[in-house]
Amino acid sequence: MPLTLSPVRTVVCCPNCGSPDTEETSRFGATACKALRRCLACREPFEQVKEL
Question: What is the C-alpha separation between 24 and 3, in angstroms, rounded?
């Protein structure tokens, strides 16, 4: 079985309002395992812990 690598798109919901309408503002946050995101509904920034 051939292995194909493609980007996995996961929906990241806002921890403040629960909206799935978020955008990544920075690939790396305070540590390499976190990304910075912003909610487009409530406009609040938040950190996302990246998946392996």
Answer: 27
Q: How far apart are CA 48 and CA 37, in angstroms?
A: 7
pTM of the predicted model, to two decimals? 0.76
Cα 3–Cα 7–Cα 8 angle in degrees, nearest 5: 100
Cα–Cα distance, 24 to 7 (Å, whole number)? 15
Q: What pLDDT, on a 0 to 100 scale, did the predictor assign at position 52? A: 74
Residues near 27 by beta carbon (within 8 Å), at least 6 away in sequence: 35
